[in-house]
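Researcher: Quick one. two chains, 190 residues in total.
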Amino acid sequence: MDLAELQILMEDTFGAQDRQRGLPASMAWLCEEVGEFARAVRKGTRADQLEELGDVLAWLASVANQIGVSMDEAAARYSAGCPKCGGRPCACPGV
Amino acid sequence: MDLAELQILMEDTFGAQDRQRGLPASMAWLCEEVGEFARAVRKGTRADQLEELGDVLAWLASVANQIGVSMDEAAARYSAGCPKCGGRPCACPGV
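Model:
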């Protein structure tokens, strides 16, 4: 699935509810889902991890839609490799 | 950009450093970037929002790579609309 496609999908599916709920509440939901993803990563099953990762992506898209920013354009900063050193692989010191 | 493409890009660019840093530290970085995104949404410029959204996507991909889960497969749960009610738009009560 394309990032642009994901964003349109989220707009079609949840756009009206997103706007009714508003940005701060949507941001809170995103944070909640990131926490659930963290728990799934720490002690969940693969199925849990898949589900929570999907929820994080969905809520990230919802927030991106509400602020009118393109996920595709955001990811493009990485398209040639590390945005800092330009390397692919990254050649920055440290991890 | 495709979600699968994003994941490969992150593996090529940061995979070695990701494995050296390890999962808990990478999860902490993801949370840090989500916080920066929240600040950008609250009071940042459009450029800030684009940058931080890109960073969240990058770190999400890094963690997904380390746990061996596909972002594309994760997003697919939403491909027909709301995973709960099946609607596009969602017909679930409440927001």
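The longest helix of chain B spans residues 46-67.
Researcher: Thanks, that's what I needed.
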